[in-house]
Amino acid sequence: MKQIISMDQRGLLFRDGMFQKILGPGRYSVGNFLGQRTIAVYNVADEFLPLHKLAVLLEHPALKQALDVIEVADDEIVLLYEGGNFKQALKSGLHAFWKSGIKREYKSYKTTDVELPPAINSQIRDHEALKAVTTVTEVPSFERTVLIINGQVERLLEPGKYYFWQSPINVHTKSYDVRQQQIDLSGQEIMTKDKVTLRLNLMCQYRVVDPLELYKNIKEYKEQLHIVLQLILREYVGNLHLDELLEQKDQIGGFVVARLRERCLGWGLEFQSAGIKDVILPGEIKTILEQVLQAEKRAQANIIRRREETASTRSLLNTAKLMQDNPLLFKLKEMEHVEAISQNITQLSLNSPEPLGEQLARLFAARQPVE
């Protein structure tokens, strides 16, 4: 039986399972001639991955001379380049490649450095072959990310893409949204100073301005912020009577923001605004307040009506005084009334020989009281 080895191949000759020599391109016989002869064929373009243990085969000087042997430590990654182009990443262990016309270059990097060095460009970083030995963290424009290495805060990652070696070193990241955020307290049941229990809905707007301080000082900051807001709201409402609260509810925003800045100093948060969205009263209190409001509105309406009546009476009195002191004005006013009355009369019969004007004046004139 013949075995053909082509130009881009190499063969290993074994006799009775023992390595004998390297075979170059050509035609070879295999079989039971002078012992069991077998030939293992390998492509020189690929990594040498024998069926036998590599370290044992490398004890043969001829084979070791024909191979590029690379030993990668546990804290290393070796990048293989062929013809100047990245080919693959070699993990810890023993690796071998056939010496041939292919120009190979091996670059070693310490994984204890955690981040990939700038010398590895973006095309190589995103290469499919490198994904098996790296992890990627991408920080969007609206976030900031805290980098933690072996439990210690290392630094703050600005928006961008970051690559880390996979290694026993524990690399962890914590991201924070730095856009304006809002926290809502809904249905908070609180008792006022005069023992009235009501429900409040509060909103507060804030922003993360120092993610490093926030990570170092506060765990689960949203939950803690929720509790602090509850306490501040109870402090404000508990010191006011119901009437005072309803009158001053627009002032609670400033009070809450000021208290938050005091209590959350060093959290890395910036508090921008706060305010009451709803005040929900008990049914009986709501009914009483509606009755009070209706009574106040009726009282206001009565005051306005009396004011208008007084003004009208004062105007009539002034007119009467003017007519009393001025007969001509009285006569003109009298003729105005005659004109107004005449507009509603369709037919009028006068039988006196007196002039028409005198008869009409006497007809509509007010009767003077007899002294």
Catalogue the unreliable spans.
Answer: 366-371
Secondary-structure class: alpha+beta
What composes the largest sheet? Answer: 3 strands, antiparallel
Q: CATH H-level name of the domain at 181-281... which superfamily?
A: Band 7 domain
- What letter string, H or E per element, gives the SSE order? EEEEEHHEEEEEHEEEEEEEHHHHEHHH
CATH topology of the domain at 181-281: Tetrahydropterin Synthase, Chain A
Offer a few descriptive terms:
371 residues; Tetrahydropterin Synthase, Chain A; 10 helices; disordered C terminus; three-stranded antiparallel β-sheet; alpha+beta; 18 strands; single chain; rod-shaped
Describe this structure in a few short sentences.
The chain has 371 residues and is of the alpha+beta class.
Layout of strands and helices, then pairs:
Blueprint: E1 2-5, E2 9-15, E3 18-23, E4 26-29, E5 37-43, H1 54-57, H2 61-66, E6 67-72, E7 76-82, E8 85-90, E9 93-98, E10 104-110, H3 122-125, E11 134-139, E12 143-149, E13 152-157, E14 160-165, E15 171-177, E16 181-191, E17 197-208, H4 211-217, H5 221-238, H6 242-248, H7 252-263, E18 269-280, H8 283-325, H9 327-342, H10 356-364
Antiparallel strand pairs: 1-4, 2-3, 2-5, 6-9, 7-8, 7-10, 11-14, 12-13, 12-15, 16-17, 17-18
